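Model it.
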Amino acid sequence: MVNLKELNPDASPRAAFGARVRSAREARGWKQDELAERVGYSGRHISAVETGRKPPTLAFSRSLDVAFGFVGTAESFERAWGEIRNGSLLEGFPEYVGYEARAAEIRLFESGLIPGLLQTPAYAHALADSAVKRGVLTSEQADERVSFLIKRQNALVRRDPPLVIAVLDESCIRRPIGGATVMNEQLERLVEFAAQPNTMLQVAPYAIGEDRTLDRLVNLLTLQDRSVVSYVESQTQGHLDRALTSVLPLVRAYHQLQAVSLSQTASVEMIHQLRRGAP
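Modeled.
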């Protein structure tokens, strides 16, 4: 029996790409040579990509999408290749998005900014344009980032949509992004989000003080098999985790945060007050 090299998808975007190739291949019961025949490459090439020894190419990525039926979907390998090439997303994030697109439940927490899945295009563009001005992104990368975000949002519009729960620190709705018009549109989007049958919106007010249990972006995904995946970010790196020992404390902290946050009704009223200009 051949000993497969253990993969660490969090090591780099290339490693995440390779791990996804192996996962998709094994899910279909294909050996490396079988996938190689379907995409027109050698089994050795497949092995090298899966283990991160060889970077994927655009042509190879498109061949994978055809073989796996991922063309035009959130799981597209061509899209993942673009992120490796352009470097516009944090490590670990492209793989997270693959899980997000098929999650049964999505729980979000953010401080300072509206979470991506709830952003309007204008709000997202304002953030991306700021990154361009600061030299963090090129104009092409900024456009790609916003396009990628819109595709993420569209991937959740399906016959059986996931339950999406968002807890936002009060700073998210008070921090002005893009000017008054953009921010007003964004607040209106939050109210619309809260009104959907498969969503829940809560604001964690400043008043809870030290009882706020999370202090940075945390995304928790419950998959169809009821397993839970977590994704957290620092300023420079994203980290995807499937280990229960590290995921369960985040789930517990999330529930504790919900307990001290405003109800959805009170949260929506706070947003309405902001739109009316009330302090």
